[in-house]
Amino acid sequence: MLFPKTKTKKKRKHHPPSILHDKKSRTCYLCIMLHDNWAEHSALQEHHVFSGPNRTNSEDKGLKIYLCRDHHIYGPEAIHNNARIRHEVQRMAQREFEKQHSHKEFMEIFGRNYLDPVEIGESNERKKESVQDSRPERKTGL
């Protein structure tokens, strides 16, 4: 006699919240960035900052923002229609990621640098200074 198989539930992966923007604020990231407009929107669309093969990395690391419909897909300032705005958001996302992690780790995960060489040097210098400040001083026995 055959017994019916028990149905298994698909395990849902829980992704971390965005490190760039709070979804609960109901504000559009680009409305704030471009126009200083803090108006709440009834519907927001999630945008992964790094697309293509890095979409899952973007999701896993919290590199996503919430946009109104006009700034996501439609209009001249939409992130999918305006490369200048898209690259600026990618630079901002890399800066935020590198505040918590290293530049080397960002390059290992995403495989591409979005910052200017000057900015990379500044972030590396700040990390070196913070490491040196946290080290205990050596006492010399003279």
Plain-language structure description:
The radius of gyration is 21 Å and the shape is globular. The model has no long low-confidence stretch (mean pLDDT 85). It contains six helices and two strands. The N and C termini lie far apart (89 Å). The relative contact order is 0.12. It has helices at residues 29-35, 55-60, 69-72, 83-100, 103-110, 117-134; strands at 45-48, 64-67.
First-to-last CA distance: 89 Å
Strand content: 5-15%
Radius of gyration: 21 Å
Strand order of the largest sheet: 1-2
Helix content: 40-55%
Assembly state: single chain
Name the helix and strand elements from N-terminus to C-terminus, one letter apiece: HEHEHHHH
| C-alpha geometry | globular
Q: What value does the average pLDDT take?
A: 85
Category by helix and strand content: mainly alpha
Largest sheet: 2 strands, antiparallel
Helix-strand blueprint:
Blueprint: H1 29-35, E1 45-48, H2 55-60, E2 64-67, H3 69-72, H4 83-100, H5 103-110, H6 117-134
Antiparallel strand pairs: 1-2
Provide a concise account of the structure shown.
The chain has helices at residues 29-35, 55-60, 69-72, 83-100, 103-110, 117-134; strands at 45-48, 64-67.
